[in-house]
Give the backbone structure.
Amino acid sequence: MGKFAVPVSNRCVFHPDANATGRCKKCGNSICDACKMQTGIGVFCGIQCAEEAEKFQDKVSSAMPVYQSKIGCGGMIKGLISLIGLLGVFYAIMFVIYDLTDPMEMVQTLIDQIKKLINVMT
């Protein structure tokens, strides 16, 4: 058992005569149905563990940045135009170098070239 492991028991830590039906999310104590304190973030053995876990969760949530998309519609259109441009360049290269017009053959040729490159590098 590790240095910080909580021993697993099939008996409630507060009611030794009762079978444990769960474990506290915070401290790991084995608890019975009578001791279970169900909250929105888990099951706890008491109010102290529940409050400490909630404070910790609030602290973690406030420390994590909230990512919001700042691309907007104009950025999405620019990205789509760029993607279409890159596909056009890819198509032109495959047509000029390999004389291919079928997109599936182009993709297969690209895969084959990547495999050759990987073989050369290994």
